[in-house]
Design the sequence.
């Protein structure tokens, strides 16, 4: 069943996909006919059967899907007439998603994890394509709330250590290798991997509260919870697309940019 026809989606994913478009997918027989593989050295090889079946499952479930998120480019899913799998350090992958916000390709593994390669550094960023939908669906629910943005730097390949005590409940469905969400009544906290190449990894940390007067409490809770990283000032809000003073709140729902 294609995901846009699935009646069992979470309410937030259903809301996110209410703005989706669905284009034509690539038929299974066409995928089998065109399937090929390329080794890490660039040599052509027979496509493994499990990789072929993974492409077919992906296309049947997500082929032709497009939905907007932060910008107008949107998230585009599909093989688009290609059926090549590539051997990487994470195993066989195929390019199945184009991230319009980052204007970059996202690779899909046979188990539906996804990976992105930037500056020559591959990184698994989603535990599944459904988790890749749950995380932005949660963001869509709170992006117009008052929020504050920070950054946390860690050693390359390391995640921030977070003590959940004092934070809202961990949102397991929306949490993956590059996203962590804690969501409670009127509060949401998001850690998202922003950069994973160079001398350090950088995670963007955002605190959202439904009421602006509760932001300070959420920020204080997150600062006490996160260890194993270095807090950095962050003067850019990617949600509101403007520069602001470090630790300055954004109030998009009130039509303001600062407090």
Sequence:
């Amino acid at each position: 069943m294609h995901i846009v026809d699935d009646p069992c989606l979470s309410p937030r994913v259903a809301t996110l996909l209410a703005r989706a478009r669905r284009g034509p997918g690539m038929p299974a027989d066409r995928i089998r006919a065109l399937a090929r593989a390329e080794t890490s050295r660039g040599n052509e090889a027979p496509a493994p059967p499990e990789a072929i079946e993974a492409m077919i499952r992906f296309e049947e479930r997500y082929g032709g899907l497009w939905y907007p998120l932060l910008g107008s480019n949107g998230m585009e899913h599909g093989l688009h007439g290609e059926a090549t799998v590539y051997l990487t350090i994470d195993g066989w992958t195929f390019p199945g998603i184009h991230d319009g916000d980052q204007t970059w390709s996202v690779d899909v593994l046979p188990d539906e994890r996804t990976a992105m390669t930037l500056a020559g550094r591959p990184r698994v960023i989603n535990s599944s394509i459904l988790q890749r939908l749950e995380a932005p669906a949660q963001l869509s629910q709170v992006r117009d709330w008052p929020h504050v943005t920070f950054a946390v730097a860690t050693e390359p390949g390391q995640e921030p250590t977070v003590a959940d005590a004092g934070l809202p409940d961990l949102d397991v469905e929306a949490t993956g290798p590059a996203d962590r969400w804690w969501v409670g009544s009127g509060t949401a906290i998001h850690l998202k991997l922003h950069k994973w190449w160079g001398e350090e990894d950088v995670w963007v940390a955002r605190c959202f509260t439904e009421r602006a007067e509760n932001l300070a409490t959420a920020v204080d809770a997150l600062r006490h919870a996160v260890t194993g990283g270095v807090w950095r000032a962050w003067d850019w809000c990617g949600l509101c697309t403007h520069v602001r003073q470090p630790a300055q709140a954004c109030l998009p729902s009130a039509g303001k940019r600062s407090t």
About this structure: The CA atoms of residues 40 and 87 lie 5 Å apart. Residues 49-62 form the longest helix (14 residues).
